[in-house]
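Bench notes, afternoon.
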Amino acid sequence: MALSRVCWARSAVWGSAVTPGHFVTRRLQLGRSGLAWGAPRSSKLHLSPKADVKNLMSYVVTKTKAINGKYHRFLGRHFPRFYVLYTIFMKGLQMLWADAKKARRIKTNMWKHNIKFHQLPYREMEHLRQIQRGTHPAIHDILALRECFSNHPLGMNQLQALHVKALSRAMLLTSYLPPPLLRHRLKTHTTVIHQLDKALAKLGIGQLTAQEVKSACYLRGLNSTHIGEDRCRTWLGEWLQISCSLKEAELSLLLHNVVLLSTNYLGTRR
């Protein structure tokens, strides 16, 4: 004990560096920051459940994009002519849906704020003008594509993950689920609509009230808020003709009908 005091006295007088013992160091660490020794705990333990879900979804999206890229490269190498047609069709469908969505947003804003067409900004006015120049597809034009939607790559079981997400949003369903669950839910949802279509065809559209007609159109992807009742009944009749002509293996076409039959519909221009 005396020797220890002498050493500390010498360090204070001469400024010599005397390394404190193991016990002293441990006490100092305790005094400064509590339990300072031991391996640091992983920050992952502090993540909230919401952050964990977000990280999981980010991981799933990254993996899905990687698989999607490999799939495209495979088609490009082994089926180059088909890949060109497939790419053109998919890009066209995405552009068609994006244009229709933007036009719907502009018209909703016009209705909310009582804005006339000539009062719109130039770009919005031009976008509506271009959309209105498009042609509404006829029933026979859509049914002519039925074989394309019964097999690869547009069949219900062959749709890509990003494609499934886009269709989920079009059907007003959440797209924040793993692709297998999204595909299963879309398939179930479309099957239910197909069954409702058959039952409605037997009942007759004329038996529906005005509100029932509006609701039926909305369920099938047509924003009927600003469309007259007669127009809604006409559109619903076209939908039923297509739906009742399809087999179970061709229901992917019915799902895509949300975009194909709703875009450039004459009633939406008013």
